[in-house]
User: What shape does this take?
Amino acid sequence: MPADRADLSQRGTPRKTYWSRASYRTLKLAVKYLFFRSTYETLCTAETASPETEGPHGLSGANFFEKENPVKRSLAVMLLAAVAALLAGGQTGNGQEKSKAESKASIEQEFRKIENIWADADKNKDPVALGPLLGDDWLYLGPLGTETKAQHLAGLKTGDDKLESITILDMKVRVFGNITVVTGHEHEKSSNKGRDTSGDYLWTDVFVKRDGRWQAVNSQDTPLTVK
Assistant: This one.
């Protein structure tokens, strides 16, 4: 039987990250240290060297500073550029992971809404609300046999199928392109043509995206305990 997803809480999934916050802080501190150290050494060279002082390779202090300082600046720039590229790569990876997680959460929320509408329609015996959610080729397989879309909607009108309450214990959404498989575990109070069908069920709903909207094409209930 279709299930009410209102009581289902979202379950978080571990996400891979390329850089943790601690790693970023450590890397930033290292960059700052190297940058200030390079600046300090450059200033020290400028202070200790004078035009009269002979530096390495026979250069005067002034020439030595003029020739050494650009090299140090170049090394600092190269270091900062490399670190910036590394940080950008890590941020891009985190951005992609975050985007995937948000997309998954959005899809799960969409199907939670669909399943809620489905369950409400069953409980309220509303074939008009349920009809658009089911494809014309929808087929249900349950403990009492199979049922087509036309048969199920007719059962709602006659009152043969009765769903009084459902408690969702678990639900999982898996998307494969234009096909989505929703599985779950529920406890329901229901009956079919006067027969008590209450109990715990494992269920599966298969959806196909058609003309921009999702429609169920197959559903199955497996009873764990039936009275």
